[in-house]
Amino acid sequence: MANLTVKGVPELVVAELKKQAAAHRRSLNGEVLHRLERSLNPAPDTAAWLERVREVRERAHGETAEDVLAHIRRHRVHPSGRPFTVSELKAAIEDGRE
């Protein structure tokens, strides 16, 4: 197996990875490997699952998958154009629960 060194990882990213690793009972290295492998090789049933979601949404809401994706793309970035931070996402989730 090869080794890979990643430089310049922000402390907040490392902290979040460590938290997720603990939650999944993995080492930090194991969590990073799992996420890399998952991002490069999505689960084989992903296509079937997405198709099922597409069918249900179209039947229930009359929306196409393209409509849903366009909605997600419009709302997943901060108005400034940068991605949301973890703390901003958590605050939005909590705000929506009040």
Contiguous low-pLDDT stretches (5 residues minimum) are none
Helix content: 55-70%
Average predicted confidence as pLDDT: 79
Major sheet size, sense and barrel closure:
none
Oligomer: single chain
Q: Count every beta strand, where a strand is a DSSP E run of 2 or more residues.
A: 0
- Give the overall silhouette: extended
Number of domains: 2
Rg, rounded, reads: 18 Å
Strand content: under 5%
Number of helices: 5
Order of helices and strands: HHHHH
- The CA-CA distance between the termini, in Å, is 49 Å
Coarse structural class: mainly alpha
Characteristics of this structure?
mainly alpha, single chain, extended, 98 residues, 2 domains, 0% strand
Task: Describe the overall structure.
With 98 residues, this protein is mostly helical. It has two domains: 7-41; 44-98, no CATH class. It has five helices and no strands. It has helices spanning 11-23, 28-40, 46-61, 65-75, 86-96. Helix 1 (11-23) packs across helix 2.
